[in-house]
Amino acid sequence: MSVKWIGAALTVAACGWFGYLAVNAYKRQESYLQQLSQILAYMAWELEYRLTPLPELCRKAAQQSKSPLGQFFVQLAQELDGQAAPEVAPCMSILLSKSGDIPQLTGKALELLGESLGQYDLSGQLKGLEAVEKYCKHELEKLSYHREERLRGYQVLGLCAGTALAILLI
Asked: Which end of the chain has the smaller Cβ count within 10 Å, N or C?
């Protein structure tokens, strides 16, 4: 009989852990989008006032963020340096396929950045950076809409699903 109760407790704990992981993934998504938005603002400033070349721009942008996103931009700079005819879009695709830890919305924003960066003149690149930054802000607004209720819901759903499963198993 006690084995059933131990199994039920482990089931509730496992489902609760799943809810906890969902909350962490949500917060991570928000964090990455905020960091990318800050990096994009810095890149726009750097391009507009200093006309920094792309590999150096990526390195300077990486210095602005102490997160894994900063490391991503260091790798992008290395990819751009290593190519004979550097184009950002293929380099970005390669890095995104290698990096499995970047959240989905941030990955989409980075793809948009890769499509516009280095393709146009200065004003076109600035507009591209602005468009990606607007995308980030729009996604952040969507994520922040009823944020607390949504996070609490993930936690409660995990615990309730575990409890219901435990009751069915007992």
From this structure: N
Helix (H, G, I), strand (E, B) or coil at 170: coil
Compute CA distances 162 → 2, 4, 15, 148, whole Å: 18, 14, 5, 21
Query: CA angle 40-46-48, nearest 5°?
Result: 100
Alpha-carbon distance of 127 to 138, in angstroms, equals 16
- Report which residue type is found at 106: T
Within 10 angstroms of residue 117's Cβ, the number of other Cβ atoms is 26
- pLDDT per residue as tens digits for the range 118-160: 888 889 999 999 999 999 999 999 999 999 999 999 999 888 9
Locate 126 and state its tokens.
């600035």
Tens digit of each residue's pLDDT (9 = 90 or more) over 57-99: 999 999 988 888 999 999 999 988 887 556 888 889 989 999 8
Report pLDDT for 102: 93
Q: Based on the number of CB atoms within 10 Å of its own CB, is 32 exposed (0-12), middle (13-18) or buried (19 or more)? A: buried
Read off φ and ψ for residue 64, nearest 5 degrees.
Answer: -80, -15
CA 29 distance to own-chain centroid? 5
